[in-house]
User: Which sequence fits this backbone?
């Protein structure tokens, strides 16, 4: 046993030294593993995993060349597996890299060629033809004639597939007139000309074209090609009533069968054959590097194999020694674990399905709701008639009510998904509370409530924490207190519990003299969609999600909430929170005033939005403040537009066809770091502000957006 352990030590040491060498070239190492996995159609997921690891290493080391080599590999991987949307994303990344760095190489030509193939498979003929033309232009400038023939042939096949027969004939005729070592291109061009003439019922021309294809094919040894051509000649001879010629061609096919063992139906025109020929252009420069990698990879596999055998041997010995003792116990545990696992999976699936459903519904409602709220706002700004004003105010109220309901659903789903992170930023607690108090002025007056504030912070109003989540807690609790207290009193108390060095613990209390909560409902009042009774819901409205959101946020902040209530005597909610004490003193110099709105005039704004109604609303709101707006409906054109022209601000919709808003922003930031980019999104369960800003966005406006907030965010980038 000791000898085995010693051997394992030296093998591990050797493996470590090899790993150390490998880590110096981790990108190529993972691309090699990806290439190895891609050769096996059942290992495609592994190939994608290793490719993404190569991407991560390239980003970590800021190796732009290797990063786009990894993207190029991923694009080809997805293309070979018919995942054309994913392939398009990675090939466009590569083409942008080459364009920005002004690199005109055969790899860029192959990238454009691959994009043409992808869009051809997606039945987007114009895009396909555009990329084939770009590929042809580069190969032409590089004077790579063999590649030109292959690209031209693909263009011709594209035109034929789209029934543009005369244009396709023009290209095929050019191919047959060129001198090329790849006679297969000429053979296929003549054959495709024959196919088109047959469709046009021009059988004599079809016969001449396919006869020339046979003359070239007979010089080579491709029996499958000759077999296909001979079949075509038999068909055309029969159409021309030349049965003698048809019989002669049939004899040639039989002769081919005698001399070659092949399946007649096995020949299929496979565009991949032509794609592989394009790769020959780069093959010589890669061979030497691939041989070195292959040797190193073989050594690594050998080392890992030895280590794996040793580990398995030790494990087998250990399992054999303990097997008899543990057999019975394991059997019982397996049965129980299986039952528990099944129940756990069912519960998780049900919870996940519920969360995804609610998230999808709330997310999809935001786009039409943005149109409703936006159009309502614009109509209210145009001085409507008195009898119209009441209708518009009712529509505005209904839209805002529905928006609050959707926001609550999305927030509870985000909290339950455990994807929310706690921020730690400077904020002034006094300012935060005063802003919240001011926002409730109208509601306080409407319900005739006496609102009392008792704040004792011992000079520690400047704190470090998460002001957004604290605001959510206070707004929900104060809103409930005012809603359920008419002609009464509401108190907000904040006091210092303890202070240690740079940490302070504050106690919050929200108290009211309202209707209170029945004793039998208190235990469940923090559950989702729960209210005191059906009558309360009908009388006061609401979603029953506010207290559930409060409880989950407070738990996320490391505390808990307590409730004391009696029916008819009001309710008291209390909780404690810890904050760091900030030494920074903020000044209120970031307030947006009407002067800031004056600064918006004549500012050039680029709006990237695919929804036509949202385009109309957003453009109108921008123009109402004197801004100049240009609209683009996709990410690809947005990147090109930003590369050509300067704008003062960009409003970027996150969900776009093709390249989405985050990908477009990431690519714009490779050549433009100064223009503010604001995300517009009907934010979903898997999105958050931090994630969107990590792509280079400066701010986030959630759809449907509140107009004043919309203007304030924009104005903050033009404050004098």
Assistant:
């Amino acid at each position: 046993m000791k000898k085995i352990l010693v051997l394992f030590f030296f093998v591990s040491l050797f493996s470590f030294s090899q790993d150390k060498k490998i880590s110096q070239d981790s990108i190529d190492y993972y691309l090699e593993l990806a290439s190895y996995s891609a050769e096996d159609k059942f290992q495609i997921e592994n190939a994608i995993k290793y490719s993404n690891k190569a991407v991560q290493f390239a980003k970590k080391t800021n190796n732009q060349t290797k990063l786009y080599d990894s993207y190029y590999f991923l694009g080809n991987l997805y293309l070979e597996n018919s995942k054309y949307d994913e392939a398009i994303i990675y090939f466009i990344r590569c083409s942008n890299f080459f364009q920005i760095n002004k690199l005109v190489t055969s790899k860029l030509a192959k990238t454009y060629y691959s994009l043409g193939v992808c869009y051809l498979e997606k039945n987007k003929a114009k895009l396909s033809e555009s990329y084939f033309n770009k590929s042809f232009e580069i190969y032409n400038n590089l004077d790579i004639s063999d590649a030109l023939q292959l690209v031209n042939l693909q263009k011709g096949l594209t035109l034929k597939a789209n029934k543009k027969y005369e244009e396709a004939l023009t290209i095929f005729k050019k191919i047959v007139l060129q001198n090329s070592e790849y006679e297969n291109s000429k053979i296929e061009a003549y054959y495709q000309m024959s196919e088109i003439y047959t469709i046009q019922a021009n059988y004599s021309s079809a016969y001449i074209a396919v006869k020339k294809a046979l003359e070239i094919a007979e010089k080579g040894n491709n029996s499958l090609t000759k077999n296909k051509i001979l079949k075509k000649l038999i068909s055309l001879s029969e159409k021309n009533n030349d049965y003698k010629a048809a019989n002669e061609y049939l004899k040639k096919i039989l002769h081919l069968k005698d001399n070659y063992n092949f399946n007649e139906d096995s020949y299929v025109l496979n565009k991949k054959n032509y794609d592989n020929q394009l790769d020959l252009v780069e093959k010589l420069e890669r061979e030497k590097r691939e041989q070195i990698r292959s040797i190193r990879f073989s050594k690594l596999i050998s080392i890992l194999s030895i280590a794996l055998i040793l580990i398995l041997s030790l494990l087998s010995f250990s399992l054999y020694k303990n097997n008899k003792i543990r057999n019975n116990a394991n059997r019982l545990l397996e049965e129980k674990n299986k039952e528990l696992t099944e129940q756990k999976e069912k519960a998780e699936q049900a919870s996940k399905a519920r969360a995804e459903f609610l998230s999808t519904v709330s997310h999809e409602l935001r786009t039409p709701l943005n149109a409703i709220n936006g159009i309502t706002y614009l109509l209210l700004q145009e001085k409507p008639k008195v009898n119209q004003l009441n209708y518009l105010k009712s529509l505005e109220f209904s839209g805002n009510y529905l928006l609050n309901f959707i926001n609550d659903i999305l927030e509870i789903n985000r909290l339950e998904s455990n994807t929310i992170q706690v921020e730690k930023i400077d904020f002034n607690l006094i300012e935060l509370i005063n802003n919240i108090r001011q926002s409730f002025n109208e509601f306080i007056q409407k319900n005739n409530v006496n609102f009392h504030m008792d704040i004792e912070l011992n000079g520690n109003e400047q704190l470090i924490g998460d002001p957004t989540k604290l605001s959510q807690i206070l707004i929900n609790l104060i809103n409930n207190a005012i809603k359920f207290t008419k002609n009464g009193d509401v108190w907000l108390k904040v006091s210092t519990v303890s202070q240690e060095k740079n940490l302070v613990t504050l106690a919050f209390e929200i108290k009211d003299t309202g209707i209170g909560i029945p004793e039998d409902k208190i235990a469940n009042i923090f559950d989702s969609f729960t209210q005191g009774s059906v009558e309360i819901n009908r009388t006061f409205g609401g979603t029953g999600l506010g207290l559930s959101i409060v409880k989950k946020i407070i738990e996320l902040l490391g505390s808990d909430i307590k409730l004391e209530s009696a029916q008819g005597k009001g309710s008291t909610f209390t909780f404690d929170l810890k904050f760091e004490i900030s030494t920074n003193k903020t000044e209120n110099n970031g307030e947006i005033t009407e002067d800031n709105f004056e600064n918006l005039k004549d500012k050039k704004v680029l709006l990237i939005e695919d929804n036509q109604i949202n385009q109309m609303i957003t453009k109108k709101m921008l123009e109402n403040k004197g801004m100049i707006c240009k609209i683009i409906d996709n990410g690809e054109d947005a990147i090109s537009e930003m590369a050509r022209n300067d704008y003062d601000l960009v409003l970027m919709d996150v969900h776009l066809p093709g390249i989405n808003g985050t990908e477009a922003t990431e690519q714009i930031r490779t050549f433009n770091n100064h223009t503010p980019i604001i995300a517009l999104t009907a934010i979903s369960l898997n999105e958050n502000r931090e994630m969107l800003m990590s792509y280079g966005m400066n701010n986030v406006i959630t759809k449907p957006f509140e107009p004043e907030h919309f203007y304030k965010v924009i104005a903050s980038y033009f404050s004098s």
Observations:
- Residues 564 and 572 are 5 Å apart (CA to CA).
- The two ends are 78 Å apart (CA to CA).
- The domain at 165-269 is CATH 1.25.40.10 (Serine Threonine Protein Phosphatase 5, Tetratricopeptide repeat).
